From TrEMBL:
Pfam families, per the entry: DUF4012 (PF13196)
Lineage of the species this protein comes from: Bacteria, Candidatus Falkowiibacteriota
Keywords of the record: Membrane, Transmembrane, Transmembrane helix
Annotated TM spans: 41-65
Protein name listed in UniProt: DUF4012 domain-containing protein
InterPro entries given in the database record: DUF4012
Domain of life of the source: Bacteria
Length: 366
């Protein structure tokens, strides 16, 4: 097996290497070393995998926590928003304020947490994720705005309720004169707040309109569309309420007493504004109360001055009705503001009474 040199000096290094080579050829030894090599590879591969997982955990751990916070805060915000709306319906406005404030805070936390999550590298590199994340952002933003709107509305209603004595509900027929004055006065000053609420609802509606149901929000499409319809209805109602908040105090005689000329038209006799001015009335209001309302036949005004008013009428009136123009035919223009100005001129001329405005009522026959 070994070929020893005939030299007097033995080469032990050569002998060792040859012996080692023979030893390595033994099958059992070969298998043992192969297993050791495999175990060594698996050891270092496992360390590598653990390192990769550690890096991923460090990278995505904060994102996972952010998503959990988004979910928890959103669920909490939704609950408190629903509670606030229910309390508003039952006129428990202080609780509605508390619930809507908590809802606003929860949705703000959800928005902040989701912004942190969106700043991760996945969202910045994958367009599909970007579009889905934007949809969630639109939904969270609209929810936060709605919470603030409910809070504003509850605070406004609570302020109105606090103006009443004995903690009454907001039922106008139960108000005493002083309460009516306080309520109408607050309504008179409400335009900026109502404009703010209406603007917030429009912003929420804009975010809801941007949502695309092509991904994770598809299962919620029905509920989101229902919310969108309700928000649009509320925004439209506020849009109508804002001018009414300025008109109603004037009609109610606030901030100073008001006198109105009320006209009753008979649609059996056609005129450009809808009917013949057969009856007129005087309405006086002050701080929500009607101080005077009486009506008269319009001929009671025209007849005493028939020889005192000399005004040429429009050609058709002169041809088919009268040679002179009186208040009963003053509604000749189909444009009501123009006709109202003409009627007021006749009334002041014939009666010499200062009025604030003119109200037209049409009597319709079956």
């Amino acid at each position: 097996m070994f070929k020893l040199s005939k030299s007097k000096n033995l080469n032990f290094a050569e002998i060792y290497h040859k012996a080692q080579s023979v030893y390595d050829e033994i099958p059992l030894v070969k298998r043992t070393r192969r297993r050791r090599a495999i175990f060594k590879f698996l050891k270092y591969f496992s360390i590598f995998i653990l390192g990769v997982f550690a890096i991923l955990a460090i990278t995505f751990g904060s994102n996972v926590l952010s998503l959990m916070k988004v979910y928890q805060s959103s669920i909490s915000g939704k609950y408190y928003l629903e509670q606030a709306i229910e309390k508003t319906k039952s006129q428990e406005f202080e609780q509605a304020i508390s619930f809507s404030s908590q809802s606003t805070e929860d949705f703000n936390q959800a928005i902040d947490a989701f912004d942190e999550f969106k700043n991760g590298f996945l969202s910045s590199n994958v367009p599909y994720f970007n579009s889905q994340f934007n949809n969630v952002s639109y939904l969270l933003n609209s929810a936060e705005i709605l919470s603030r709107s409910v809070n504003q509305g509850s605070a406004f209603a609570n302020e109105l309720q606090n103006l009443l004595d004995d903690n009454k509900k907001l039922t106008y027929s139960l108000f005493n004169p002083e309460e009516k004055k306080r309520i109408i006065g607050r309504l008179y000053q409400s335009a900026p707040e109502l404009n703010g609420m209406q603007a917030n609802l429009e912003l929420a509606l804009m975010d809801l309109e941007k949502i695309q149901y092509n991904g994770i929000l598809l299962p919620a499409k029905g509920k989101i569309e229902d919310v969108k319809t309700k928000v649009r209805t509320a925004a439209d109602l506020l849009k109508q309420a804002i001018p009414m908040s300025q008109v109603l105090p004037a009609l109610a005689g606030y901030p100073k007493p008001s006198t109105f000329l009320v006209l009753l038209q008979n649609s059996d006799e056609l005129r450009p504004t809808g009917g013949f001015l057969g009856t007129y009335g005087i309405l006086e209001t002050e701080a929500g109360d009607i101080n005077r309302f009486e009506t008269h036949d319009i001929y009671h005004m025209d007849m005493p001055v028939k020889d005192l008013v000399n005004l040429d009428p429009p050609a058709p009136i002169k041809t088919y009705l009268n040679k002179k123009w009186y208040m009963r035919d003053a509604n000749w223009s189909p444009d009501w503001p123009s006709a109202a100005r003409q009627i007021e001129w006749f009334y002041k001329t014939e009666n010499n009474l200062l009025i604030r405005s003119t109200i037209l009522m049409v009597s319709l026959t079956a």
